[in-house]
Amino acid sequence: MMTDYHVHIGQWNDVYFKAEDIFYALKNSGISECWFSSTTSCLYSKTIVAGKCDAEALSHEELYLKIRDEVKSALEYAQTIDFKAHALYWVVPDIVKSGIGIERAMTECPYDGFKLHPRAQEWNLDDPVTVNFTEELFSYAEKQNLRILIHTGASGDDSPKRFEYFIKAHPNGLVQLAHLKDLDAQEYMLKNFPNVVVDSSFASENEIGALVGDGIERKRILWGTDMPVTYWWYNVLGKEKIPSIGKELLTEFYKRNHYSNESVGASYV
């Protein structure tokens, strides 16, 4: 079984990526399982809230329902093609603060974990309300044996250490740090917290090799692609006209850029 631990569906900037197309591309590239979240959640990104780009104006409740139904439909489709898909609830602080709590989200949709993106959305850990619901979701994930996937980067906002307090406080909760950015911080988290793993999305073989060379077990480096964000970067960004996108094109891209039987990805699952 080959698993892609970092996949998305939904609205990403100016393109909507259908779950049917993404799951088809993965399955027909030799992938049998994935963990995914909806980038439609980025309609509440910091740049959009600041009015720096156009976005569909949705209330908190409308966006929550849109994403819930989108994910449920994706899971239903996955079953029809015998593809194992695990959904992660992309936690948007503004939605939680509006009164749509973690318990409601997890009750209304069969999520298998959470996605946190402290660069796309503001996670103000100096705010008591934010601290309280962050503690709630880490506690919930630990008790229910659910995964938490956290975007990381090289800035202060998305440092791999950003949620260190909560990771330390919940040692039985599995936390997946994405992208291998800021390798020193990633290595610190891996060596200090056995409940932490990382994924290889947007990471180079040199970055992976550096961790392994410093004693990190390969089994703690999960294979992930961030598909179809990668497709958007290479085929849509900067184009005056959005090119046609379909399942066959996505499959071809995935096979060529992410996975084949000879790919390096297969060696560090």
From TrEMBL:
Pfam family, one: Amidohydro_2
Top-level taxonomic group: Bacteria
Signal peptide extent: none
Domain (Amidohydrolase-related): residue spans on this chain: 102-229
InterPro entries for the chain: Amidohydro-rel, Metal_Hydrolase
SUPFAM superfamilies: Metallo-dependent hydrolases
Protein name, as recorded: Amidohydrolase-related domain-containing protein
Source lineage: Bacteria, Pseudomonadati, Fibrobacterota, Fibrobacteria, Fibrobacterales
